[in-house]
Records
---
Amino acid sequence: MLLVLVSTVIGLAAQGYINSTYRTWSRVPASGATGADVARRMLDANGCQVVDIKRVNGHLTDHYDPRDNSLHLSSENLTGGSVASVAVACHEAGHAAQKAHGYAMMKVRTALVPVVNFTQNTWMLVLMLGLFMNIAGLTTLAIVFFAFSVVFQLVTLPVEIDASRRAVAYIEQSGMGEVDVRGAKKVLTAAALTYVAAALTSILQLLYLLARTNDDR
Ligand SMILES: [Zn+2]
């Protein structure tokens, strides 16, 4: 119970912080450019001329998809000319740059995706079977499956932080204003905290699972 509460509070706090930081900086105009403009320039500067920029529906649904090698930006970040739009668009361009430059942690993360998709969908079922049928081997397998999600989130952290680092470095060197740089740092730090919160929550869940299954034996 306490764990659910702690996880929820961590998650909500991180979510609230990114939302309010994003809102603040989405009211500050960037130095005469939209998210798409700056992301395009950053992509070209990183040798990513072939990377396309597409529109995606929703709020903060922005992502880079390695499968079609395209940035998918939400309308507000694509055509919005705020400091927050530029920060988010450049962060996604940072992921494209990671792929172009063969950034190792991104390769590890991409390789883990199919494994984690499988383990995330099955760990709970395996755990239930293990507990109901009282088969310790199945319970252990479920925990191993869950541990993959934890590893995945830990690998995601450096990938996200590196994409933000590339974004801020580009905004800085591209000669945009001091406000653009300061805002990008704030928005992207807040975004990184949501990944830290997610990783922390799953570590807590793993510890809980380990403690509970040890009690049962
Ligand atoms: Zn990212």
---
Amino acid sequence: MIKNRRKQKNHKFKLTASIVILLLTAFFTTACGNVGSDNSYNNEKTPAVSENEENKNLVDLNGVLKVHYINVAQGDAILIQCDDENMIIDAGKNNKAGLVDYYLKEQGVEKLDYVVGTHPHEDHIGGLDLVIDTYDIGTILMPKITATTQTFKDLITSINNKDLKITEPIAGTTYELGKATFEILAPNSSDYSDTNNYSIVIKLTYGDTSFLFTGDCEDVSEEEMVAKGLDLKADVLKIGHHGSRDSTIDEFLLAVDPMYAVISVGRVNTYGHPHKRVMDKLKEKNIDVYRTDESGTVIASSDGNNITFNTSPDSYDYRDGDKSGLVDDNDDSNYPDGSNNNLSVETTNDDSEIFIANIDKVGEIVTIKNNSNKDQNLKGWTLLSVTGNQEYIFEDFIIEAGTSITIASGKAQGDIKWGTANIWNNTGDDNGILKDNNGNIISKFTY
Ligand SMILES: [Zn+2]
């Protein structure tokens, strides 16, 4: 079901001048529409200036802005596309890197004009190293806070390898993404006790519609934004910190006053996200909620006047107490030593520290990464191509701590050669499974 509601705004008049400019711009430039492969939206063009009094202030941006809240289970990964320009905010955990990469390729992304690492927790920056390695990169925005984890080191290595620079987010700075603009709203301090509060908060505006992206920012940062009197008003709010009770304080929600909320959260997570306190507030205010744990990837499209979604709104269900006592809810990333697999309750051992990072099906190369602190001999382990039911059994081969190896088939070259036949099915689904020498599934790579 596609929802298409129009919201009355009080700031229409100040937009009039910019509408005229935008109309002139639109007249001389080509359309941006049709980014990506999904055509399931209501993408009708709205008349620029209508005789009809009702439509008088509609904007014609001659295209569509798309915001993809990619389903990366517990974590965030958001792709924003407008006028052939692309931006990514976070890229999920390490073991979701391949999935994010695949998703971007599916959308035809070749360059990322902006890469935002909201804060250095693994469920946000884990996949960013592969993104940096793979695409043409423009501006990288990351807060001024470091982490001692292997994940963070990997990201910095990838940035350095391409001679890229990190831009510090300065609140109040605005950037352009095609005909959309975005403004940095946070962080507003240089020192927080909780890493989550360093999260870069961004307000994206496209015509008369707006989106707020909050990373994992919590009450402290939300209070600062409210106290500064920033224009937080937005149509779509990405709920902070996967729906944790430490985010989305009343004053903040009141100031944002969203029509829609999106929660990026894992179906199975040890934190009990999203929490009752947050879900109750959204329900009470009758805010439509879209959740990656219920709908999978959520795509919002804006023509500058209306926002439509690729799916119908989800439930106000919460998980408080599901896994209580297992882990400190304040930290959804990993332990200081970089390990996090012991937090996993995924049945597929999805958060293993040794995992399939990518399957390049066309290139016939599988990348396996060892994100743990110790070397692992893969002797007796198996890599399975599910569709063709082909199995590669590893011989004596050590994957060193913190490194990746490649397994090549067909004409490809890699650290290990899996025969000369092509293994991976290029057209349909072909998932990869990695099993240890006892036959336990260690990692599953799913398209
Ligand atoms: Zn997070």
---
Amino acid sequence: MERTNQLNQLVGFFYLNGQITRAFHGRMAMNFILEMIIMANRNQLLTLITGADKGIGFETATKLGEAGQHVLLGARNAEKGQRAVDRLRSQGFVVDLVVVDVTDKQGIDQAATKIDDEFGHLDILINNAGIALDNHEKASKLSTAIMRKEFDVNFFGLIDVIQAFLPLLQKAKSAKIINLSSNMGSLGLATDPQSQFYNVNSLGYQASKAAVNFATICFAKELAGTNVTVNSVNPGWTATGFGGRNLNEPTPAGMQTPAEGAEQIVKLATDSKNVMTGTFTESGGTLPW
Ligand SMILES: NC(=O)c1ccc[n+]([C@@H]2O[C@H](COP(=O)([O-])OP(=O)(O)OC[C@H]3O[C@@H](n4cnc5c(N)ncnc54)[C@H](OP(=O)(O)O)[C@@H]3O)[C@@H](O)[C@H]2O)c1
């Protein structure tokens, strides 16, 4: 604040002093603007979203950009990621690309080192990258090769990302890990005969998201009382290309827009109190584990 006052006085002085040459005046004005930008950036939350080149991740990046956060847009494909970054920058948001495949541990570690070198911390980590490869095959028929691929991205990838970025989150004033789970990963809903998920049968995807919830529980317990909160979010059934859905097909009744899917993630990411930890929520409230 004191620095702002000093700068204001300086600008006022040069404004009043008609003797100053136009070039010098212009340079001072530019310096003043740069100082203002640097000061604003210091207060800007730094948020990494994995798998954010499309779908719910991209929508979350859009909303958090709008909210004034500095978004590090994660994408495994550099070209697709850059296109997404360009779209967001054209709207005036502060966005940078982080090329990261969550199944590539070395690449994750390199990305964490680069972000640490450049920014020295991370405020929010949103583990959004996910896949669903099983197609409601019976548990007795689904190949373990498919399940392993789902676990590699949805669970082991998420753990590798958390482990690599936790030291950066611990350097922030107040930090968050938000894990994208699913109502399909809820053991409570899967075993409740009244639930619409009782008859759902996607062992690989469901087990991988139940494992994500367990990661949330374990990390939340380990980090209780520290500056880092850890929560699971269910975006709900959302009209993205997830699981190979054709985006040109009409949206089925009851399917949400990506903006609706991003709602609860954005709510947690913009919650300035940041006291909630170890929860599993959606925009409608709390879900059973
Ligand atoms: N849509 C739903 O109905 C729904 C419901 C419940 C939960 N979810 C969860 O919400 C999250 C986002 O889903 P979505 O609907 O937005 O799906 P989506 O449109 O298919 O987006 C998934 C994102 O994950 C990325 N990804 C996949 N494998 C990756 C890897 N190995 N490394 C890094 N990124 C990878 C994709 O990148 P590419 O563009 O390169 O493929 C894409 O950016 C997922 O975790 C999903 O399980 C979705």
---
Amino acid sequence: MIKVAIIGAENVGKSTLMNALIGGKVSEVSETPGTTKTTIKRYFGKVKIPKTMKNPYGGADEIILIDTAGLFDPEKEVRGKVLSEEKFKELIEEIVKADVIIHMIDATKGLHRGMEKLHYMLKFRYEKPIIVVINKIDLVPRERIEKLKEIVKKRLEQEPILMSLVTYEGFNELLKALAYYSQYAK
Ligand SMILES: Nc1nc2c(ncn2[C@@H]2O[C@H](COP(=O)(O)OP(=O)(O)OP(=O)(O)O)[C@@H](O)[C@H]2O)c(=O)[nH]1
Ligand SMILES: [Mg+2]
């Protein structure tokens, strides 16, 4: 069993990704930031990872996917609008318990300062494997995407996956990363 938390600022596409990974509509999606109001939304299922992508060292098949409320406002360094200080803390505690974290960045907004700080804390203090995804690349010209990719690489010290949940570009790459990290399941 592997526990995967999808995190990011509001409106980056967390619930859309949860639905895509599960292959059904389990979480509400909308263009309004602050859509996911339940701080922590868990879903049990099977990771639909093709056999050819499976980690040769084995790893978990079953997944607990955790969709989360947007941690920050998309523009400002303030908490997401559905999160009280207490709920924010509760959410961080839940994220820290996950085996793998997917940090989603909105290609139209860039890397969020609050998320950048949180990323560092999760990576270095809690030693969490983090998959970084730049989502919504269908909305941004390629050269801007490449620039953002370089900024993210430099600031987060890792290679992001470029993804669109409209064209599904990069989705297989994410599945591969999940298959790889599933070996860290407890
Ligand atoms: N063009 C485009 N739109 C996307 C993509 N992924 C998600 N969206 C849209 O972005 C909006 C927000 O998606 P959600 O999945 O609700 O975002 P969220 O991160 O769960 O948002 P909150 O729950 O409010 O924090 C919706 O209108 C989605 O259809 C993408 O790759 N490309
Ligand atoms: Mg949501």
